[in-house]
Amino acid sequence: MSDKSFDLIVIGAGPGGYVAAIRAAQLGLNVACVEKRGSLGGTCLNVGCIPSKALLHSSELYDKARHGLGDHGVKVEKTTLDLDAMMAQKTKVVGDLTEGIEFLFKKNRVTYLRGAAGIAKAGEVTVTAEGAGGDGAGKGGTETYKAANILIATGSETVALPGIEVDEQAIVSSTGALSLAEVPGHLVVIGGGYIGLELGSVWARLGSKVTVVEFLDTILATMDGELARHMGRILAKQGMEFRLSTKVTAANRTADGVSLALEPAEGGAAETLACDIVLVAVGRRPVTEGLGLEEAGVALDNAGRVTVDSRYLTNVDGIYAIGDVIAGPMLAHKAEDEGVVVAEIIAGQSGHVNYAAIPGVVYTWPEAASVGKTEEELKADGVDYKIGKFPFTANSRGRVNAETDGFVKILADAGDDRILGAHIIGAHAGNMIAELVLAMEFGASAEDVARTTHAHPTVSEAVKEAALAVAGRPIHI
Ligand code: FAD
Ligand code: NAD
Asked: Where does a domain end: 282, 314, 332?
């Protein structure tokens, strides 16, 4: 076995790539994983899921200490913010988790090659070290490796807005917004999607005035409309301002911040909006540049994503792709599950990802969590469906916790009662949705969930009640 020749070389060590590498090694393949950022874990661990959730959790504690404990008889005399300590906690969590993956690579004998990978041709990968040296190419040099199989797991990057230059100082992407040196007086977020609402919430809780400018007439456009509207109302009550159906046409640095030009989405009179920091959060696009995909003949679709078949194989034999760089929701757990399946396929086994049951969670307060079809999608598909809804105001544990905002909504087939979609807005929605994902995975009916015993008193009883409500017989409302 040569140290320059592998059964599989994975390009990119995000949740897709590192999970695929570990699973393939578990199955006995000789695997290398190339990563250029200097640490493992990809966008998610370094500048995505993990640091954003660290700040969301810490800022929620700060907010609770300031506003949320009085009803429970807990008096906090003076709450102050130590932003440096909050950032240090975030940095430590990220460091621990990324180092944890290095440990997992060693444990599973995955070779970690530090540097930027390119596909010379099918079966051959080049690795150019970017100063770091490492197990692979020497400092600054390029090494060539042989690979029976190559997996592209290069992920995604922030989409830029034409004419608005992200400097990561005053005009930031999510990466800059995760490391601001001080709490901005006024933060304008362009884009009312996952990142805009999560990072907008962090800074709003820490004291910023936050204005969200969204091109469409709704925030969270891909989620169930009723849930998105409810979220908008709750966040507005928390002080977030929304400028819907509005576009930003220019952003200029001024002596004390940024001046934005806004226009109605349909066009019309322009206005200016001054702020301290602008967060551009209008989506992400696949990373395919500099990999040599064109030379290798790997086809992309119209959106610039690598095209794959149901086995994650590109149009070139021996080259596979998964995660944010291919079609589908740009979510870490989707990338991870594809990573497991592609490793099993390369190792001669079979597997599949059920794209009808991939949950999406927005980690604001309250959280929003969805799986399956939205009501809008069912209507558009002409499906005959039933709705069961149950509010947290009628859930005893919600009352105990003083967390009564939100509801559970289950959509089931009007004919056979099969669950087609579920949408939860509530303090613990992200954890609660797992039950309904599993139900959908097993093809459960609303009646199945309704007849399952749920512990009392838990917020999960709201799921059972919503399932009962599908049949028109909830008990507690
Ligand atoms: P990535 O994680 O993007 O990893 C790709 C890796 O490939 C990168 O490390 C990159 O450096 C490397 N790479 C690229 N090109 C090369 C090359 N030529 N050579 C070597 N290495 C290369 N998703 C969730 O499910 N839950 C969340 O809470 C969540 N929060 C998020 C918060 C933010 C602020 C952001 C930006 C994203 C968030 N996401 C979340 C999305 C999630 O991060 C992505 O869906 C996920 O990281 C995709 O995994 P991936 O493995 O496909 O790619
Ligand atoms: P997004 O697609 O979630 O939201 C982007 C928003 O920007 C949309 O509402 C869109 O209508 C709006 N928009 C687009 N162009 C605009 C313009 N010119 N002016 C104003 N608004 C505009 O994208 P995101 O928030 O950047 O996040 C990127 C992806 O990262 C997400 O789609 C998601 O897949 C992933 N992510 C997931 C999580 C999570 O799972 N909790 C958290 C963060 C990010």
From this structure: 282
Catalytic annotation, pick one of 67, 352, 456, 476: 456
| First-to-last C-alpha distance (Å) of the chain | 67
Judge if 26 and 99 occupy the same domain.
yes
The pLDDT value recorded for residue 1 is 40
Q: In this predicted structure, what is the pLDDT of residue 134? A: 47
Query: Average pLDDT of each block of 10 consecutive residues along the chain (477 residues)?
Result: 85 98 98 98 98 98 92 92 98 98 98 96 92 53 96 97 94 98 98 98 98 98 98 98 97 95 94 98 97 96 98 98 98 98 98 97 98 98 98 98 97 98 98 98 98 98 98 97
| Dist. CA 39 → ligand 1 center (Å) | 12
Q: Which CATH number covers residue 227?
A: 3.50.50.60
Q: Which of 43, 198, 331, 371 to mutate to test the pocket of ligand 1 (most atoms within 8 A of CB)?
A: 43
Q: In angstroms, what CA-CA distances link 335 with 305, 365, 414, 461? A: 14, 25, 33, 31
Residue 230 a catalytic site member: no
User: Ligand 1 pocket, 364 CB below 6 A?
Assistant: no
403 and 258 share one domain: no
Q: What is the pLDDT of residue 132?
A: 45
Do 343 and 369 share a structural domain?
no
- Kindly list the distances between the CA atom of residue 198 and the CA atoms of 52, 67, 210, 382, in Å, as whole numbers in the listed order: 8, 19, 12, 33
Domain of residue 216 covers 171-282
Q: Three-state SS across 369-418?
A: EEEECCHHHHHHCCCCEEEEEEEHHHCHHHHHCCCCCCEEEEEEECCCCE
Same domain? For 323 and 429 the reply is: no
CB atoms within 10 A of CB 103: 10
**Which residue of 35, 39, 45, 49 sits with most ligand 1 atoms within 8 Å of its CB, as the best mutation to test the pocket?**
49
